[in-house]
Design brief:
The protein is built from four helices and eleven strands, in the order E-E-H-E-E-H-E-E-E-E-E-H-E-E-H. The protein is of the alpha+beta class. The two termini are about 35 Å apart.
Length: about 220
């Protein structure tokens, strides 16, 4: 089992950097998950310790995941998540975006194969995605993304629908995978817990930096 990449820890919180290609929680088939690693970590400190999932990242997305160490805090965070947190991602897109910044508003539905798609009649769950271009290569765009809602696959679907899927995202139309992983990373998390502000940040993945140095 890989070593847990801890960003921050106190008596109530555990914040970690999830690697790409790892599930946040089990799908019923895989036992080696970020949650299982976090649970094993806190149990080693004391066998009665517990850990609770507050939010998730897709399997192929890397970056910041926050856990609570008690159920009361977990419930508070989940009940207020969109109002108390600010989440910043970076992504590498196929193609060159024409607009340097924008807001993408969609209504999302999910089919029987668990693929998320955009509703044309405003049925489904509302998703709001803000973006700003950081850099271009010959064929790609590096964007900074802030999500105002935390819906399943919302970033991936939003850019795929614009015609600029995230590289490595075959599920949503990508035809290139030059970094051999999904080009999406949860870079920053700012959160207000009972009027105390926490700011968490990870490094940009090496695969992203290496790609832009070469292109």
């Amino acid at each position: 089992m890989k070593k847990l990449d801890i960003i921050y820890e106190d008596k109530e919180l555990l914040v970690v950097n999830k690697p790409s290609k790892m599930l946040t929680i089990s799908d019923g088939k895989t036992d080696n998950t970020l949650y299982s690693m976090a649970r094993e970590y806190v149990k080693k400190q004391h066998k009665s310790n517990k850990i609770f999932i507050v939010h998730r990242l897709d399997k192929d997305t890397s970056g910041i995941v926050l856990f609570a160490k008690n159920e009361k805090l977990k419930n508070y965070l989940q009940d207020n998540w969109n109002n108390i947190s600010n989440r910043e991602y970076i992504a590498i897109l196929e193609g060159k975006l024409n607009n340097s910044k924008g807001i993408i508003k969609n209504y999302l539905l999910e089919d029987k194969t668990h693929k998320v798609y955009i509703s044309n009649n405003k049925k489904g769950e509302y998703a709001e995605t803000h973006y700003e271009v950081i850099n271009y290569t010959k064929n790609n765009t590096l964007v900074k993304i802030n999500i105002k809602t935390g819906k399943k696959n919302q970033i991936r679907v939003a850019f795929s629908n614009l015609g600029y899927p995230i590289i490595g995202d075959k599920k949503y139309g990508s035809i290139s995978n030059s970094i051999k992983r999904l080009g999406l990373h949860a870079l920053k998390l700012n959160i207000n817990i009972n009027n105390k502000i926490y700011n968490f940040e990870t490094k940009i993945p090496k695969e992203f930096l290496n790609y832009y140095e070469k292109n």
